[in-house]
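Researcher: Structure for this, please.
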Amino acid sequence: MKYADEFRDPVRARGVLAQIEEAIDEIGATADAPVYIMEVCGGHTHAIFRYGLDKLVPEGLEFIHGPGCPVCVLPMARVDECVELAERSDVIFTTFGDAMRVPGTRKSLLQAKADGADVRMVYSPLDALEIARRNPNKEVVFFALGFETTTPSSALCIQQASQEDLSNFSVFCNHITVPPPIKALLDDPHMKLDGFVGPGHVSMVIGIEPYQFIARDYGKPIVVAGFEPLDLLQSVLMVLEQIRSGRAEVENQYSRVVPDDGNPVSIAACENVYEPREKFEWRGLGEIDHSGLKIREEYKRFDAESKFRIGYGKASRIVPEPEGCSCSDVMTGKIKPPQCAQFGKGCTPEMPLGALMVSTEGACAAYYHYGGARPELEPAQ
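Model: Predicted structure, C-alpha cell format:
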C-alpha cells in the first residue's frame, strides 16, 4: 500500500534505530539523564505503543506524552453544559462518538441519552446540518470540538447554515488550538523537555510557521511527523540530530501530506467564522490565554452559547478533577499513566474516571490497550 507499507519496513526501521542509538551516545544521554521528547499528538502516542516503539528505542530517550487529544483536555464544566443542552426537550444534541463517554460531574452524554435525551452521534457536522433540515421544529446543536484539524469542517458548516438561513441550527464551539498549550508547557519550570514531535494532522491545516516560536524563543527543536513507525522514528532522529548539532529549528518530516504553508482554503474559512477567546480552560492545564476559538459576531445566531446563554461569561465554572484522578499530571508529562492510583482499577475504558481513558487518543487508553504489547514493527493484534 503506497505510503503505508514503505513506512513499516522492519529493515529500514532497524537502520533508523541504529542511527538513533548513535545520536543518543554522542549526546551523552543515559537512562538516568535521558533526552525528553514530547509527542504533542495523541495519535502519535497511540502509534508509539501500538508498534512498540517505546520498547525499541534505546535507553537515554524518554517519550513524554503531551496534551494532544481534544477530548482528553475537555473540561468537566463544558461536559456539564453539553448535558444541560441535551436534556432540553426542544434540543437534538449531535456529537462525535468519543465525546459521548467523557464523564461530567453528573453524567456523560451517553448516560444522558440513556436517560431519554435526544443525543445523536454524527460523523461530520454536515450530518448535524441535515438533521436540522429534517427537524425544523427542533433546535439542533452540534458539539464542535477538536484542534485545527476539525475546525475547518465546522466553520464551513456554519457558513452553509448561514447561506441557507437555518435558524434552528447552532454550534457549541469548543475548538482549541495547539501552539498556546505548548507555550504553557514550556513556561512551566517543572517541565523537562528537550524537543518535540509535532502534530501531523493539525499541521496539514495550519502548516509549520505557527511553531516557529518554539525554536526561536525557547531553543527547542520540533519536527512535524507522520503516523507510521518509520515516520515517528525518523522524526525522533531528526530531533536528536538537531540537539547533537546545537540547532533548534522547525522541520517537516511529513512533507508528503503537510504543506509548509498549510491549507489556505481551510485557514480562510476558520478566520472568517472564528476568533480567539481571551481565555479557555483545558482539563489538567487550567485556563490558557487565546487557546480557544469562539464564533464571530457575524455568525452569532449560530452560536449555541449565545442562543442558550451558557458558556464563558455566563454559567461557566472550573470544576476540579474527580478525587484520585491524575489526568492533569499525565497530560503534562509529570507521571506515566500506570503511576496513577486509579489506572486499571477505578478507571478503565469500560468505566472511565478521567478523559484520558475515554478517548481513542488518550495516553491512559494507549497504555491500557498496548502497554503489554511486544516490541514489534507490525501493529499489535
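Researcher: Any notable elements?
Model: The longest strand covers residues 61-68. The domain at 76-177+261-308 is CATH 3.40.50.11740 (Rossmann fold).
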